[in-house]
Design a protein that fits this description.
globular, 6 helices
């Protein structure tokens, strides 16, 4: 099977499965799953892309939580949000100097995913930590997305693998 056809089939099936999974089994924002999935491929795919993307996206969530906590004493005033987001963004870029944290885009994707969930009414960072906590929801969705990315690469490769030609046995 050609690579484009294999990827089309595999990603289509897995995308449908990810929607069902997040609707009925592990209820996290499916759009964060897709963000992590895309980040996985942007980071180069494979186990290396999985590690680069997932680690830095989780760091982005952590920095996002710290930004939200930093603006709490100021009542979320626009100036405090601007300063805290600026510092958070600078931190994400500075962290790219650390081995294993080089894939800065994933940091911003995790950061933005947290703010998206918070903006959609997904609770607050001061809520008790549980499965419904926004940061937990985002991290779980990022993990699922990275795993779906890895699975789509593995299954697509399996469908495109060349099979050895049948050897004539003389029978």
């Amino acid at each position: 099977m050609q690579a484009r056809t294999a990827s089309t089939l595999v990603i289509g099936v897995l995308a449908a499965l990810s929607c069902l999974l997040t609707a009925y089994v592990i209820m996290v924002p499916v759009w964060v799953v897709f963000i992590a999935w895309a980040s996985f491929f942007a980071a180069g795919g494979g186990t290396s892309g999985l590690a680069k993307s997932l680690v830095m996206s989780v760091v982005g969530v952590i920095v996002g939580v710290l930004v939200v906590l930093a603006v709490q004493p100021f009542g979320g005033a626009a100036w405090s949000v601007a300063v805290a987001v600026g510092v958070g963004a600078a931190i994400l870029v500075a962290l790219s100097a650390v081995k294993g944290l080089e894939f800065t885009p994933a940091g911003f994707l995790g950061f933005a995913s947290l703010f998206g969930v918070l903006s959609a009414g997904g609770g607050g960072v001061l809520d008790p930590v549980s499965f419904t906590h926004p940061a937990v929801q985002v991290v779980v969705a990022l993990i699922i997305g990275a795993v779906f990315g890895l699975a789509s690469g593995v299954f697509s490769a399996a469908l495109t693998a060349k099979r050895p030609a049948a050897v004539a046995t003389g029978r």
